Amino acid sequence: MASNNFSFSIKDAQSFLQELRKCQENLRQEKSQLQNQWSNLKSSWEDKQRNDFEDIFEKILSTYNDAEQANEKHIKFVEEMIEKQEKISSQVGNLPSL
Question: What keywords does the record list, in alphabetical order (predicted)?
């Protein structure tokens, strides 16, 4: 039977969250750089292969978008877990001594 109780290191979770945020920023920067370079290239590329590659490039961008969306969900999840763990920790810290 699964338990609703959980416990983890808040410090480790915060470090992980920081790395997820860095990853998110890196994804955005890489995607932006690719889009800029593609824009430069396609303005001077005039043949059928460009159109074929453009379809492939759109799939690449879609993959970046999917990764960004999934990562954003993970960021929110970890933020919520940290918040819950902090709440539990503060409640435990406020218990009277026996």
Answer: Coiled coil
Q: Which residue has the tokens 């983890």?
A: 8
**Dihedral sign, Cα of residue 80, residue 85, residue 91, residue 93:** negative
**Helices 48-93 and 10-42 sit at what angle, rounded to 10 degrees?**
160
Could you tell me the pTM of the whole model? 0.77
Report whether 27 contacts 71 (CB < 8 A): yes
| Longest CA–CA separation in the chain, Å | 80
- CA 8 vs. chain centroid, Å, equals 21
Confidence at residue 6, expressed as pLDDT on a 0 to 100 scale: 65
Compute the average pLDDT of residues 52-64: 95
> What residue ranges define each of the domains in the chain, with the CATH number in brackets?
10-77 (1.10.287.850)
How far apart (Å, rounded) are the C-alpha atoms in residues 25 and 94?
38
Q: How far apart are the first and last CA of the chain?
A: 31
